Amino acid sequence: MARVLTRVAAILVAVGLFFTSQSLITPQRAAAADPGYLMVHFTGEGSTNQQMYLSHSTDGLHWNDLNGGGMVLRSTVGTKGVRDPAFVRSPDGSKYWIIATDLCISCGQTWSQSINDGSRNLVVWESTDLVTWSQPRLLNVAGAIPDGRNAWAPEAIWDPENNDYVLYWATNVPLNGATKHRIFYARTSDFRTITTPQLYIDRPGSQEIIDTQIIEMPSGVGNYRYVRASGDGQITLEGSNSILGTWTNLGNLSGIGLTGSMVEGPMWMKFNGTNKWALYLDQYATSGGYMPVVTTDPSNPATYQKPASGSYNMGGTKKRHGWIMNLTAAEESRVLARWPNTTPNRLQSYNFQDRYVRHTNFDMRIDQKVSTSEDSQFRMRTGLAGTGTVSFESVNFPGYFLRHSAFDFQLAYNDGTTQFAADATFRQVAGLADSSWSSFQSYNHPDRYIRHYAYYLKLDPITTATARSDATFRVTN
Q1: What is the CB neighbour count within 10 angstroms for residue 258?
Q2: 449: phi then psi, degrees, rounded to nearest 5
Q3: CA 359 to chain centre
Q4: Is 326 exposed, middle or buried (0-12, 13-18, 19+ CB in 10 A)?
Q5: For a surface tag, which of 245, 318, 340, 473 has the fewest beta carbons within 10 Å of its beta carbon?
Q6: Regions of the chain short of the pLDDT cut 70
Q7: Is the separation of the CB atoms in 324 and 267 below 8 Å?
Q8: From CA 184, how far away is CA 199, in angstroms rounded?
C-alpha cells in the first residue's frame, strides 16, 4: 500500500489461514469437536517484542496469553527479529511450520532500510507436535526476483491439485515504471526449497499491496471456493475457484465504516462447528490493536458486522500481525501443557548473596547486578525427564535450557533427545547448607549437584562445607 513509505505501521501484514471441506486435516479445521484456537503473533518493536508469542482462546473472541505473556520462540538468524508469522499444518497433521518475516526494526534495521534493502529471507521453524520446534532457519524467497528489495508477510496454502503449498509474500520491486510492494508466489513441499518466484498480485498504478490472506470455503457457502482479504488501500475481498486462477473483486468493508485509513492486516478465523467467520482487523489509525468483524459469508461484504462493545478481549499483550489455528483436542492439550503461565524466577547464591545465576554468551555463571536482566530469569518447568523433577528454561531464549555437558553448564537448545532431557533435569531438594534454601541434584548423575566454582556453574560431587554453600540457592522472583 502506498502509505507504507510514510507510515511505518503499514508493515503489519495479515497471514494466511485456510479451510478445506475435504477430509484432510488442515490449519483451518473448524470441526465441531475442535476445542479452541491458537494465535501466533508478535507484540511490538524492539528485539524482545519482535519474536514469536502464543495466545489461546476457547471461543475465538476472548484470548489468554500463554507462557505468562513471554515469547515462545526467538530468532537467532538473519536480522534476529521476526514479524508477521503464519502457521502451516501439513494435510495429514504430521508436521507444522511457522514462517515469518525476517525483520527487526530499531534493533538492526530502520524502516527505510527494510523497505529498500531488507532481508530477502523468511524465517522458518519446523515441528512434528506443535510444541517442540527446530532451530530457526532462513529461506531465501526474494533473492531471485530482479531488484527485489525485501520479503514480507509470508503466507502458505495447501494446493490439493498439485499436492504442494503455494507460498506467497510481499516484495518491494521496481516494475513497469512503479516501485512498490507486490505479492509474489512460489511452490514448495518442504519450506526448504522453492520454485522460481512469480508475480501473483499487482494493483494498478502506484497502489501497493502487502496484506493478503486466503481461505478455502466449505461446500455450499458463497459462490467461490477461495476468498481472500487484502489490505490494499481498503480491506478488499476477492473470490476465485483456483488459488492461482482469476480472482473477482467482491467489494470492500468501507460500507460498514471500516476503510483502509482506519484498519489493515486482515486475519481470518473460522468458528468451530459452524459456518461463521471472524475477520480480525488491526485498528492501526487509533493504535487499538485487533478487532473481529463477523460474517456468515466471507464473499459478501454486506454480511460483515462490527462487534458489540465488550464482546471480545485480546488479552494482556498487544497482538501484532499473526495467524490463528483451530486446535484439535490433542494439539490443545500439548500446547497448554508446554506453555503454562509459569512465573519467571531467579536463583540467588547462598554464599554470594549479591550474585544470581545468569547466562552470558550461553555460558552459565553467577553475577552481580543482574536484577533487571532477563539473562538471570528462568521458568522452572516440569522436568524434561522423570517425575517430581524440574528443568530451567530461559525467559529471553525460550526453548533453551540449563544443561550440563562434561559436568560444565551451558544454556542449550532443546533438541528433543532423551540425552538432552536427562542432562537438563534436576531434583529440587533442601539446601545442602541451609534447609530453608534449595539445592539441585542431577537427574542422571545423582551423586552430583549444581554448584558454582570461580563463579561458573559446575556439576560436582559435594563433599565439603564450601561445596555445600556453593551448591545452595534461593529460588526468588
Answers
A1: 21
A2: -135, 155
A3: 24
A4: buried
A5: 245
A6: 1-32
A7: yes
A8: 4
| 19-42 confidence digits (pLDDT tens) | 333 334 445 565 667 889 999 999
> Alpha-carbon distance 293 to 434, whole Å?
58
Query: How many residues in total does the chain contain?
Result: 477
If we measure between CA atoms, which residue out of 115, 162, 125 comes closest to residue 51? Answer: 125
Q: What is the pLDDT of residues 38-62, one digit of tens each?
A: 999 999 989 999 999 999 999 999 9
- So what's the pLDDT on residue 372? 83
For residue 270, which of 302, 313, 227 has the smallest C-alpha distance?
Answer: 227
Give the number of other CB atoms < 10 A from CB of residue 174.
12
- Tell me if 245 sits within 8 A of 222, measured CB to CB: no
One-letter identity of residue 108: G
pLDDT at 109: 86
Phi, psi of 112 (to 5 degrees): -60, -45
CA–CA separation, 159 and 185 (whole Å): 13
Return the C-alpha torsion angle 28, 85, 381, 431, nearest 10. -170
SS3 256: helix
CA dist 65 and 52 (Å) reads 12
Side-chain-side CA neighbours of 251 within 13 Å: the count stands at 12
Please answer whether residues 282 and 289 qualify as being in contact, where contact means their C-beta atoms are separated by less than 8 angstroms. Answer: yes
How confident is the model at residue 34, as a pLDDT? 80
Task: Tell me which residue of 404, 394, 392, 403 sits closest to 438, measured CA to CA.
Answer: 392
Q: What is the pTM of this model?
A: 0.90
Radius of gyration of the chain, Cα coordinates, nearest whole angstrom: 24
Q: Which amino acid is at 288?
A: G
